[in-house]
Amino acid sequence: MAYIAVLGHGVVGSGVLEVLTTHTASITKRAKEEIKVKYILDLKDFPGLPYSDCFTKDFQVILNDPEIQIVVEVMGGLHPAYDFVKACLENGKSVVTSNKELVAKKGAELLAIAQRNNLNFLFEASVGGGIPIIRPISQCLAANEVTEIAGILNGTTNFILTKMIREQMTFGDALALAQKLGYAERDPRADVEGDDACRKICILASLAFGTHVYPDSVYTEGITKITLEDVDFADVWGGVIKLIGSVKMLESGQVHIMVCPMFVHRGSQLASVDDVFNGIMVRGDATGDVVFYGKGAGKLPTASAVVADVIDCVKHFKARKYLFWDEAKPNYIADFGSMKTSAYVRVAAESGDAAYSAAESVFGSVTRLLAKKPVESEAGFTVSGLTENELQEKLAALEERGVRVLNRIRISDY
Ligand SMILES: NC(=O)C1=CN([C@@H]2O[C@H](COP(=O)(O)OP(=O)(O)OC[C@H]3O[C@@H](n4cnc5c(N)ncnc54)[C@H](OP(=O)(O)O)[C@@H]3O)[C@@H](O)[C@H]2O)C=CC1
Ligand SMILES: N[C@@H](CC=O)C(=O)O
């Protein structure tokens, strides 16, 4: 019998209990041992559940129980999750977590503690919800040199964009629905401002390239500035707007990493990833592009990934699974301002034509987009072949001429 404790009985935690109780027989067969939840830590009371007697509010009870070999952390946030997970790893307990904030900010340190103590620290659910991605990168694609990863990594924002585009739902209503369905973070600003996708691309970059990338070193933009006018311009350009997290290994040995909304061409596999689904493209030198697709958030998809990690832990009590990356190193993240970019820009002046001719004289050559539902004072165009810094300078020059820059969205080449 393998005894485990679950920290947090929210969306994911309750899903973990549901999966463990509904699939007990098959899970026991696969783990070759019965998995029994001995404790559930939560701040609230949950009377009337078949496992109500497992609840505790005291983490020390779990930490000090030698029978507990695996702790599942699904509380979220950095504190006290980090303190609890670290204490578990220092006290001989393997840890499974869905907490991307924890892995993105403390992964290198926690992996080192796990390695030192011959324990597992597994986090399949931290990226892509129910999509297998951590194990495929660390095991199935291990013969490749991964050169690039790009994808739709946040279910909530993809759900919001889909609802806005397909059903003309307002941003606020779509977000409220995503929260109701259990997709959003406790503080949904982490979803809509891009921080959640940033944490996930940091985890994938750290895993694929072996060096920890911290979220605060990554250029990050969310979806809050996107309007239906931008959606219309993306459509006439030939694509859709998606929040993309991407990382690319450069010849210099530095990584170009960012999170931002992008125009994605209709022909791209990522363009048809809608709703709460995520799509992640991993480019390997031997495999070429491998694309992973599935539900990126929600109770049962996420619980599925968590419980699979628990099963893996039980099967590897003695032979630790090898998952590791080194601490961050200086000058590893390429200077964002020097990177080449292509972008769509939406501007306004006394008339759309006036805004466009100002853009032509500042940028030289631009490609005008003609909106299906034009706004009298606005114009949209695309530019390419500039660095991020040059683009910023040109946009500032436009503003100096009295042209308002309403939005700027990068164009992806995926
Ligand atoms: N929801 C999803 O689709 C996905 C979530 N994740 C990640 O999984 C983690 C959990 O997410 P989710 O289940 O949605 O979050 P919830 O907020 O639904 O659940 C968290 C639970 O943990 C409890 N909790 C928080 N702090 C403590 C504490 N100090 N001691 C005891 N209990 C505590 C909360 O209680 P209370 O409510 O009283 O504060 C709540 O019941 C997060 O890191 C999230 O980013 C990952 C993939 C998908
Ligand atoms: N809030 C996250 C939950 C899963 O990681 C998302 O929407 O993707």
Automatic annotation (TrEMBL):
UniProt GO MF annotations: homoserine dehydrogenase activity
Pfam short name (any one): Homoserine_dh
Organism name: Anaeromassilibacillus senegalensis
InterPro entries from the UniProt entry: Asp/hSer_DH_NAD-bd (IPR005106), HDH (IPR016204), HDH_cat (IPR001342), HDH_CS (IPR019811), NAD(P)-bd_dom_sf (IPR036291)
UniProt entry tagged with the keyword Nucleotide-binding: no
Recorded catalytic activity of this chain's protein: L-homoserine + NADP(+) = L-aspartate 4-semialdehyde + NADPH + H(+)
Name under which the protein is recorded: Homoserine dehydrogenase
Residue intervals of the Aspartate/homoserine dehydrogenase NAD-binding domain: 8-124
Superkingdom: Bacteria
Family per record: Belongs to the homoserine dehydrogenase family.
Keywords: Amino-acid biosynthesis, Methionine biosynthesis, NADP, Oxidoreductase, Threonine biosynthesis
Enzyme Commission number(s) from the entry: 1.1.1.3
Domain Homoserine dehydrogenase catalytic: 132-311
Pathway recorded for this protein: Amino-acid biosynthesis; L-threonine biosynthesis; L-threonine from L-aspartate: step 3/5; Amino-acid biosynthesis; L-methionine biosynthesis via de novo pathway; L-homoserine from L-aspartate: step 3/3
